[in-house]
Design goal:
Elements (H helix, E strand, L loop, with lengths): L2 H8 L2 H31 L13 E7 L5 H4 L16 H4 L23 E4 L4 E4 L12 E8 L5 H10 L9 H9 L9 E6 L27 E3 L17 H22 L2 H24 L6 H7 L9 H13 L4 E6 L8 H25 L6 E6 L3 E6 L10 E4 L3 E6 L7 E3 L1 E2 L6 E3 L2 E2 H11 L9 E3 L2 E3 L16
Parallel strand pairs: 1-7, 1-8, 4-12, 4-15, 5-6, 5-7
Antiparallel strand pairs: 2-3, 4-11, 8-11, 9-10, 13-14, 16-17
Helix pairs in contact: 7-8, 9-11, 10-11
């Protein structure tokens, strides 16, 4: 037997405790220090970045379903000469189709029925459906060559939010929370709002998987605020339960959770303790946050009449401004019903009316309050739409199928160079001819503005340093930055 093993086995219990007393004291001290550090972290939890950040907050406006880029931002006048002609095979080039149009005998070209005009010093072409947006094009960066491999909604939205088509990864909001930390101890770092569209002809299913923390600690998951009733379920005390009873109950739960933490050392137990405490503090902070009565008339007029309808897009973006003003790092807003397989003429005007003036009001409001320079506003969907019609075609109405090869998004604030128009598509808005922007590039650029090198913002999972942009090449698009 090894002499060292023999010596260890022959140690008496008294000798062990005599020799190990300082070690046990050190372990106890380390435990106390961890508790003190956790307490301090709950007061100030902002974290250092890799380099000076241009932005501290993000408001991400996701248009669920995929807005048709050629009806809004990607002007293609040549298509008027192609009305009802078949999409050339040389343009499609054997690219994948969804099952909704793969069986069509024809792929007839459907030019946009909407008028376009150039606006601002940048000369950006914008559809007549977006009169308010057209007033602020010089504050915006237009990415006309976004592209993805995903062609169906669930994997495509997941890809856009998490950098991977497979569910279970952390989303951009969770990575922002993990990287930046909290700037307000009484509100969540990452909040999710689901706006109610005026038209509900064809809404897509979305779920909490999209705002999950994935393999990051649970505290970085998005907290979903409801559009009606109590903003957060069960945050208020039940009838007959005073605050002092709630406080005593939470203290008891905390003690039990601390015992579990000492026994198992699971970091998610610490997360549970912190989230209970945050929920208690939110009983005071959330009612004040969601009460819009103190907003001046001038601000209310910026966003339009819809802000008085709880759950409307206008109402949610005004809440988003109030959140970032109070230190919330990331606000994710979903607006549904952009999946225009048919009846573009009947649905698209409703969708645009929902978002047009509120987006304008949000940008102006952020500028007036000095928040625009350090807040990134993102607008876009999970993919684009086809230039050919799905189903029946007429000059007055048509439908469009999913199209991942190219679509338009816009970004404003947070150090992005306003008035920039980036990338070009072909005459059919079907293929990219200049400056493609993959989802990974977009994520890398956004993280850059938050002060992070996307290759260094990692979290170890099963022995690997995992990151939002994955293992494939991604680049920061410097041309978009001021």
């Amino acid at each position: 037997m090894n002499p060292m093993q023999t010596h260890i086995q022959q140690l008496t219990r008294r000798h062990f405790f005599n020799q190990g007393s300082h070690l046990l004291g050190g372990a106890a001290l380390a435990t106390l220090l961890r508790q003190e550090q956790a307490s301090a972290a709950r007061v100030v939890r902002s974290k250092p970045t890799h380099f000076p950040a241009k932005a501290k907050h993000i408001i991400y406006l996701h248009m669920v379903g995929g807005p048709p880029q050629m009806d809004l931002y990607d002007y293609k006048p040549v298509m008027n000469d192609w009305y009802d002609k078949d999409l050339p095979e040389s343009v499609r080039n054997g690219q994948r189709l969804t099952t909704m149009t793969s069986g069509q005998k024809r792929f007839p070209i459907a030019p946009s029925k909407y008028k376009f005009a150039q606006h601002g010093k940048s000369g950006m072409w914008v559809s007549e459906l977006l009169p308010w947006t057209s007033k602020m094009v010089d504050d915006m960066v237009f990415l006309r060559t976004m592209n993805t491999e995903a062609i169906n909604h669930e994997p495509a939205i997941t890809y856009m939010q998490t950098g991977n088509q497979v569910t279970g990864r952390p989303c951009l909001g969770a990575w922002s929370s993990y990287g930046l930390g909290s700037a307000n101890d009484d509100l969540p770092t990452f909040v999710v709002l689901v706006a109610k569209p005026t038209n509900t002809e064809q809404v897509q299913a979305i779920s909490a998987r999209l705002w999950s923390s994935g393999y990051l600690p649970g505290e970085h998951a998005g907290v979903s605020f409801r559009s009606g009733g109590d903003p957060i379920l069960y945050i208020n005390n039940p009838p007959g339960v005073p605050s002092e009873v709630r406080r005593k109950t939470l203290d008891g739960l905390k003690s039990l959770n601390e015992l579990t933490q000492q026994q198992l050392g699971d970091p998610e137990t610490d997360t549970r303790i912190q989230q209970y405490e945050l929920a208690y503090r939110m009983q005071s902070s959330v009612p004040e946050l969601t009460n819009l009565a103190d907003e001046p008339k001038s601000t209310r007029e910026l966003y339009g009449d819809s802000i008085d309808k709880p759950g409307s897009f206008g109402h949610t973006v005004l809440l988003a401004r109030r959140m970032v003003e109070r230190g919330v790092r990331f606000v994710q807003i979903y607006h549904n019903n952009w999946d225009t397989h048919a009846n573009v003429a009947g649905r698209l005007p409703d969708q645009c009316r929902d978002v047009d003036q509120p987006c304008y009001g949000l940008i102006q409001d952020l500028k007036q309050r000095g928040l625009f320079d350090d807040t990134i506003v993102i607008w876009g969907g999970e993919f684009g739409r086809t230039i050919y019609s799905q189903g029946g075609l007429s000059h007055e109405n048509y439908g469009r199928d999913h199209h991942p090869r190219c679509f338009t998004m816009w970004v404003a604030g947070g150090g992005f160079k306003g008035g920039t128009i980036y990338g070009e598509t072909d005459d059919f808005s079907y293929n990219i001819v200049k400056d493609p922007v993959h989802i990974r590039d977009f994520h890398a650029t956004v993280l850059n503005q938050l002060g992070f090198d996307h290759q260094r913002l990692t979290f170890k999972v099963q022995g690997l340093d995992s990151r939002l942009t994955g293992v494939e090449p991604a680049r920061v698009i410097k041309e978009l930055l001021a």
